[in-house]
């Protein structure tokens, strides 16, 4: 609320507007009431007014006389207590901007369709229950904000960026015609609730994820359940309060090397089932690790935690802190798959908690309306036999079903991606030009490569051993790797002919899962295939008087972090001196080592050399790491520096003047010699 103006001050403003030919009258925050407004609208000559600002007042209604302001091009009545707009508003045919957000409007009058000159309409934060068909006549609209009118059933991706995002972050607003097209296509018989969701099951290998999914599907427990080598997708149906909800259950293999792919499958607007295994000493660490990944990639999605293999034991650990740091966690259920009675094994309770999660506000998206023609496209893509569809072919498919607007096509692609029907990374700058992909084809095709070095004595001799110990992969090698994956039952090698293997390599590069070793990208280094241990010939931690040592402390170091770091900074690694948990780097006469340990609580960095080259190398290392940290929303590592043999938080050293703010070194010799010290 602004300042409260006296009657005299209001009268002075009216007089100035009148003297200026009624161009603009600003009474925002003046505490104008309904009686004041009626008196104002009786002023002689006010019909010539061009702009009227009545924001943040005490108005509960606009009088019919508002229709006399036929020269008005801007009407601003946001932040009042309006419950309706008078039909006379349709007489303001010169109006270009109408701002009524933050009121209590339950409907817009049909006469709004007469405002054919209107280019901007702001109606966010009201209580609209429906839109009049006549709003479709506003063909000049280039901005339409309807956020905060939940009863309209418009999902966030249709509404687009909020006004705050458009003004403060320079985001591009959603196209009004796309918003209105979606709205009217989902009314009545034209649309129906989606009633579908993606249920993502994550956890370490051996936690019993697959067994738990099968028990939820009323299948018997198999004590010899084979390891999940990649990803399996199956459907489960849940009886919710307003009908059945179909979930596509994504069951991930738990091998650590596969975690680097999770960024591209852990999506928002999904329900997560985190399965923790039997080792009580690993509970909190595993829970923090997976919850951290989920929050980083998918935001504040709901999570249900299954404490599997509990066998009736009480599992005691600090749930409150985990809920505080990584909520919303909707339930903790102690389960036992080996128990034949689903009630005794708490399988019934787990299903009940998943239903409660689907019925909660966190999963409103499953009840969002889907246009009938969107369902037709979804069904076609879900049944496609091809591995992937060129985006142009997808657009053609959309047009065949009457979805012609580019934004609607992109929005549908994003929704189908979230549902796990067909993957598309159009909102990722790295993958903007790629295709619409069959989920199992993409996931298992790449997962197979990441597991190429696994040893399995049950496989034929030619397939059982490592296939890329040096981490180098080619399209030809992928063909042999997929033969191994086929023997595991992960995929069909015939689905990955030579040209599709090259496409897969390109995707891996775009995912930062690999790094090209030649100009054509036909040879790629895959860091997760590198040996766990430092190779012979790689120097130990650099030593010397001119040496900087720092580390980043984590609760748990994300498994993909060091492989991604290696892929991004590969050009600074001499003679392939890298391994899965670290690398040796060189810049000029400076040498550096970046590594983590099996305990996975720290990433260490040591750089030695002359001041100039040391500063440069350290800048590149810290910049790359901090860029990777930004990909993990829930990861907040503490940067610590070695100071007189103790690890001290960098901020503390800056506060006490030991480190200049923004510098890259614990020494000042570069500054003393007049060299550039990069922030």
According to CATH, the homologous superfamily of the largest domain is Ribonuclease Inhibitor
Cα-atom radius of gyration: 30 Å
Q: Indicate the CATH topology of the largest domain.
A: Leucine-rich repeat, LRR (right-handed beta-alpha superhelix)
The structural domain count equals 4
Largest sheet, described in full?
A: 7 strands, antiparallel
Secondary-structure content class: alpha/beta
**How helix-rich are the residues, as a percent range?**
25-40%
Q: Estimate the strand proportion.
A: 15-25%
Alpha plus pi helix count: 19
SSE layout:
Blueprint lengths: L6 H13 L4 E3 L7 H8 L9 E3 L20 E3 L20 E3 L20 E3 L20 E3 L10 H4 L3 H6 L7 H10 L5 E3 L2 E7 L6 H8 L14 E10 L2 E10 L18 E6 L6 H16 L4 E5 L11 H8 L2 E6 L12 H13 L9 E3 H11 L5 E2 L1 H10 L5 H14 L16 E2 L1 H12 L21 E3 H14 L9 H13 L4 E2 L6 E3 L21 E7 L7 H8 L9 E2 L2 E6 L2 E7 L5 E7 L2 H19 L8 E6 L2 E4 H6 L13 H4 L7
Parallel strand pairs: 1-2, 2-3, 3-4, 4-5, 5-6, 8-10, 8-11, 11-12, 12-13
Antiparallel strand pairs: 7-14, 9-10, 15-16, 17-19, 18-19, 20-24, 20-25, 21-22, 22-23, 23-24, 25-26
Helix pairs in contact: 14-15, 16-17
